[in-house]
Amino acid sequence: MKKINKVRMHEMVSEELKEYIRSNDLKRGDKLPSAETIMKILGVGRSSLREALRYLEATDIVEVVNGKGIYVKETAQYHMSAKINIEDERSALLQLMEVRRALELLAVELAAQRSSEKHQEEMRRYLHEIETTRGHASSIADMKFHQAVYKASGNPILQSIAESVWELFSVFWNAPFGRQEIFQDSFPFHQTLFQAIVEKNPAKAREEFNKMMDSMEQSIKSV
Prior knowledge:
single chain, Arc Repressor Mutant, subunit A, Four Helix Bundle (Hemerythrin (Met), subunit A), 2 domains, two-stranded antiparallel sheet, 11 helices, 4% strand, Tscrpt_reg_HTH_GntR
């Protein structure tokens, strides 16, 4: 028997919305039902839907346009993830970790060379959110911090490659093993990584990023 992980309401809502997009073969720019309709169909409250949409926006699957509605933004990444069915969650996370190391190590090195003050301010804002919020909100801020690093790399092709597999990467911020705070020990390395980027020190940025990844890998293996 496998361990049964606790699934939160907003996670179930986000999965239902992805399944709706997939089963109806919706494309970029297509409109989803209204928030009120979704809540009625799924029997959920506004807060659960809001959290689900925030997650789907963070992973670039939908876009919520105030006063207009909910639109499909991208589908390629989760179509890819739907094809990957790995029974062992620990093995899957460790394999994804290898891919993240390869892509993001380059991103942090380039960010330390090319980041602008605007990029740095964006990263600083997300770090503050990670530190001052809890649970899902902190995880979303953490995800946004790493997306900001890719943006700061100044390489749109690298950023595009990362975005194409971001739905797979998002598992790191979506309570692996049912534990929201599993990677909390890696937070200090977010701060030292950011400092290295601000100081324009690529070697230090690589070092701190690897420390972060080592901490996360150890957390995965210890579960």
